[in-house]
Amino acid sequence: MQLAYIARRFGVFLLIVWLAASLNFFLPRLSGQDPVRTRLLESALLGGYVHAGLEDMVKEYDRRFGLDQPLWRQYVTYLSATTRLDFNYSIANYPRTVRELIAEAVPWTVGLLGVTTLLSFGIGTFLGALLAWPGAPPWMRWLMPPLWALHAIPFFLLGLILMYLLAFQLPLLPIFGGYSAGALPSLSLGFVWDVISHALLPALSIVLVATGGWALGMRGMMVTTMGEDYVTFADAKGLRSSTIFLRYCLRNAILPQTTALALALGQILSGAVLVEVIFGYPGIGALLFQAIRENDHFLIQGIVFTVIVALGLATLILDVVYPWLDPRISYRREA
Amino acid sequence: MNDAVLRVEGLRVLYDHPVGEVRAVDDVSFSLRPHERFGLAGESGSGKSTMALAILRLIRPPGRIDGGDVWLDDTRLSSLSDDAMRKLRLAGIALVPQGSMNALNPVLRIRAQIADALGDHGTLLSRRETDAHVRDLLGHVGLPPDVADMYPHELSGGMKQRACIAIAICLRPKVIIADEPTSALDVVVQRQVMATLARVQEELGAAVVLVGHDMGLMAQFVDRLGVMYAGRLVEVAPIGEIITSPKHPYTQMLIASLPSLERKGMMQGIPGLAPLLRDLPPGCAFHPRCPLAVARCRAERPELRAVAAGAQAACHLA
């Protein structure tokens, strides 16, 4: 039963990826722009003279990128290339491939956003649960206004403020980049610390903003759960306050939070554009920003596809894990 | 009175409300002998469920216990620390929740919900002992052992209620408070659940307080009945006496409204509505609906007093 359920979910996942890949293929072609011609014309104009052989060059590039083929053939080639994760060359960074560029950027984003998302989820959820709990220490109530004020600030704005305070006024942390210019990436302690110190500022701005959101959601769910009959009965059973808090209230209130966490994790590849651009972080968000500015169609396609796969994967994992978290969601198909 | 296992003396529960205090339970006293089945009947809002929670000291804000005492044997519950009171719940006085409630945690298996109760009361058992104990408890309430591995949503209403009874008896309490245990269950299941409750009560030798509004159920189950109206006990008497010769006009009309196999004709109800607790009429709270009311009823509140052997009523005319 369980296996059939997982297989079915995986089928849905493949369907979503195929649909997204097709949209990804057809939408840019509907725009009527010719990326090769635009690109070559730009270079030519930059050069300041008109190229006599421009048309020939366009034809040559079209042939090389397969753009002279009929649409259906291009589509088939595209699909088979996509299954091999081959997204062609980057137009702006030729001869580097899109796959290389994405593979370089993904670890930075996953490292920064993955850790901060999990961290703010953990802290925020637990704080939110305690904020709703009458047995929590009274000073915790003072945490609420600052948390929610921080939550209302866009994180790139908070990032700028933190950057001004902690990197410019008090130069404690590096202001820009994923690691110091000139440092050679290696697994040495020095380099690891260099990477961490560069990640601290963007991480801080994300965690400070996101924690309030998680806390707010969790507090609301806790208040609802604490009014449930089974919590009253748990009290009548003479259970310890800690048992009621963890196993009866928090355990139930956390269910909707988990859904939000899976979606948030799926979105980390696309959600970091602003932070990465502001902090000059070499992640996928900054790469996408650069690709859009430079009209690098293949790179944009590659990144969008990666983002879609990440979201689909997060949903797939959630679907598989959720029945285990909430036994009322059954693997069995409703009869 | 010293043979009483549970004594409630002058218990009052207030709810703070914007227009002032609302007295949900007002000066209620009764006592339970060991093995006795005592019924608390009344219509919605009469304070009977609040009574059940007040005995367990489980009234939450904006409600509070405003006075009176509850004694379990020689222990005065109001003098216990919060932790001692917590340990007394379930071990001394257990609650069987309303049948319409989702009293079981939806994400825990029945075994875990029983094991939680045992563990938090200091009964530390090995996995194997817990399994055996849970199987034994489920057997007592007529559930098959594999229910231990099920989640509440996999059980029917009657099975859930049996599981709740299994939890309630797991520490062999002296008093079981059953708060409308069969509401929302159909009559067949209702009968089975009540039979289960009666059986485990006899096995345990516990006393039972049955809270409810179903006079037919009360007549079948309890030994003695207390009738509540607007937060006060208006009549307490052995069940046979209450059914055959009720003393309080409210009880009389309640009994008269029961359908009967012998009599045919229009169903009789009690005209009017129960009064708002925050705006009680002066004198006897029942006088606006009472066909026998005299001038004294409007001015002076009747106290509960003995009117016959073993029977008490709060009525000037009784």
Helix-strand layout with pairing:
The complex is a heterodimer of chains A (335) and B (318).
Chain A lengths: L1 H29 L4 H13 L6 H11 L6 H13 L14 H35 L11 H9 L2 H15 L19 H38 L2 H8 L4 H26 L1 H4 L1 H6 L5 H10 L3 H29 L10
Chain B lengths: L5 E12 L2 E13 L4 E5 L6 H8 L7 E10 L2 E2 L5 H10 L1 E4 L13 H11 L6 H14 L16 H12 L6 E5 L7 H18 L2 E6 L2 H7 L2 E6 L2 E7 H6 L4 H8 L38 H5 L5 E4 L2 E3 L5
Helix pairs in contact in B: 4-5, 5-6
Task: Explain this structure.
The complex is a heterodimer of chains A (335) and B (318). Chain A is mostly helical. Chain A folds into two domains: 33-83, no CATH class; 98-224 and 253-325, MetI-like fold (Orthogonal Bundle). Chain A has helices at residues 2-30, 35-47, 54-64, 71-83, 98-132, 144-152, 155-169, 189-226, 229-236, 241-266, 268-271, 273-278, 284-293, 297-325. Chain A is globular and about 90 Å long. The mean pLDDT of chain A is 85. By secondary structure, chain B is an alpha/beta fold. An eight-stranded mixed β-sheet of chain B has the order 6-7-8-3-9-10-12-11, with helices on both faces. In chain B, helix 4 packs across helix 5 and helix 5 packs parallel to helix 6 (187-204). The interface between A and B is medium-sized, with 22 and 29 residues.
Q: Class of the largest domain in chain A, according to the CATH hierarchy?
A: Mainly Alpha
Helix-strand topology string of chain B: EEEHEEHEHHHEHEHEEHHHEE
CATH homology superfamily name of the largest domain in chain A: MetI-like
Main sheet characteristics of chain A: none
Work out the helicity level of chain A: over 70%
**Could you give the count of β-strands of chain A?**
0
Q: Low-confidence parts of chain B lasting 5 or more residues at pLDDT below 50? A: none
Secondary-structure content class of chain B? alpha/beta
Relative strand content of chain A? under 5%
Helix/strand-derived category of chain A reads: mainly alpha
Mean pLDDT of chain A, to the nearest integer, reads: 85
Taking all Cα atoms into account, the compactness measure Rg of chain A is: 25 Å
Number of continuous helical runs of chain A: 14
Annotation, overall tally of beta strands of chain B: 12
CATH topology of the largest domain in chain A: MetI-like fold
> Order of helices and strands of chain A, N to C?
HHHHHHHHHHHHHH
State the low-pLDDT regions of chain A, or none: none
